[in-house]
Amino acid sequence: MPVPLLDLRAQHETIRDEVVGALMDVVDSQKFILGEPVERLERAVADLSGTAHAIGCANGTDALLIAMRALDIGRGDEVITTPFTFFATAGTIHNVGATPVFVDIDPETLNVSPNAIKAAITPRTRAVIPVDLFGQIAPLEEVAAIAGAIPVIEDAAQSIGARRKIGGAWKMAGEHPTIGTFSFFPSKNLGGYGDGGMIVTQSDELATRMRRIRVHGGARQYYHDEVGYNSRLDALQAAVLLAKLPHLERWSARRRENAAFYTTALGGVGDVRPVTIDPANESIFNQYTIRTSKRDALQKHLAGKGIGTAIYYPLPLHLQPCFAYLGYAKGSMPVSERAAGEVLSLPVFPELTEAQRDEVVEGVRSFFDGGSR
Ligand SMILES: Cc1ncc(COP(=O)(O)O)c(C=O)c1O
Predict the structure, then answer these.
(1) How many Cα atoms are found within 13 Å in the side-chain-facing hemisphere of 353?
(2) pLDDT attached to residue 372
(3) 88 pocket-lining for ligand 1 (C-beta < 6 Å)
(4) Which of the two ends of the chain, N or C, has the fewest CB atoms closer than 10 A to its terminal CB?
């Protein structure tokens, strides 16, 4: 039985009527840009995230761009982040004219290492961007303590609805930092039927500025206080996301169940070990990722059985050709480089059946039982 890495059609079948009804309401209204559904979604995401403000935008990449522009980050500035993330985290730093400063990650969680951030801060550091990799929140309280007055932008593209115990209280993804950014790319736990993004903050001032930057930098139409972007969230995406939002908690809980199942079932199989979840975190498992020294051969073996997997991420960002100008040598981020050679994400989507889960486990076991590996 083939097992895809992600089966969006299986999810769509369960919510088809709700989503199509919501889409048709927008079609009938003929109001496609921002408007009422976007405002309702902004309110709902702010409530979910425990933030005062949420601002819809075109995608998670623009959310990072707008956040940095609102903090006046540009030429001559440095922004510290992890090299073990999706490209957008660092591409946007470059695109606002600033210099990405990469620091290595924690060998257990693969999230950014707070101590490494400490060593990289200079008088030119204007922000730190921790990423909630695979759905578990980065150690934001430690990052904030080290950053002091330097703003923290939480790249929460993969972690909407995740929580972390900070100072004895649960904090939602996006709640703790200066600014949090979400992506509604279809493969995210809350995915649209196209691109979408959201920015959250507790700051009234930053919210006002980010709303302005989202629509060409003008609070009033045709009057521009600064040069912004066209990064509006469209009403059709907001309608889909509003229809899906009530299911998010259940879907993420189901992902957690699948993850727990794999962790038990794969214990002691070859040299497989899952990426560690910090006990302070409740992950939403946007990905369930294992590590093994035989990663490439295992992936091939599973592909032969029709089991979909993915490597997030095969080449850390400090070694990407486009960042050669930054001058990072191979070996300069050993933890990230090692992880890039060992990680493999398995199917963990909420609609995964028990038979499919068993198939994945059997696929991994049969590889290591093969002997010669
Ligand atoms: C960590 C991270 N940052 C940023 C993004 C960018 O989001 P988008 O694809 O919506 O632009 C993504 C997802 O694609 C991501 O995983």
Answers:
(1) 7
(2) 42
(3) yes
(4) N
